[in-house]
Amino acid sequence: MARRSMKEEILGAGVELFLERGFNAAGVKDITDRAGVPKGSFYNHFESKEALAAVALERYGESRRMSLLGDRTIAPVERIRRHFEFLRDELAEFTGGCLYGNFGAEVVDHSEPLRLRVKGGLDVWSTVLAEAIADGQAAGEIRAALDPQQTARFLTSAWEGTILKVRSDKTGDAFDDFFAITFDALLT
To answer: What's the helix, strand, coil split of the chain in %, to 5?
Structure first.
């Protein structure tokens, strides 16, 4: 099997380390060591760690399976549930969190380019989720009184808070709470 490009190796290592350690604790040398490439090669592909982080956020957003939320072959509430189940199942051993949430807590007050990337990623997520909610309302699965955009923003915020609770408690109890409130009370 062919090896990924050096840029892809650096990017993959960056995403991993940003999730494991955060932006500030993941140094360029740590990233290139993880990627198995010389440190000098980093700057052939990225002008700074911040530039790498911007691309990492974009790549991370692409991996969130947003397309599942728009799959009209699946009932709307079921696709919303499957989306959040996918996100839940990705958090192995209650570590890592969400790159949007992690960067939102760590760097958005210090980097305008990264703040805009985090905001953009969360906005895309909320928009796609709002469309699924509106589909659920049209199908009679979700209460018509809910504003889809507002509900989507609430759910993404609640999800980020759920991840923090899960990580601090080292149990899945907050996931259980999120799913119970979301699917047994809010979206019914």
So the answer is: 75, 0, 25
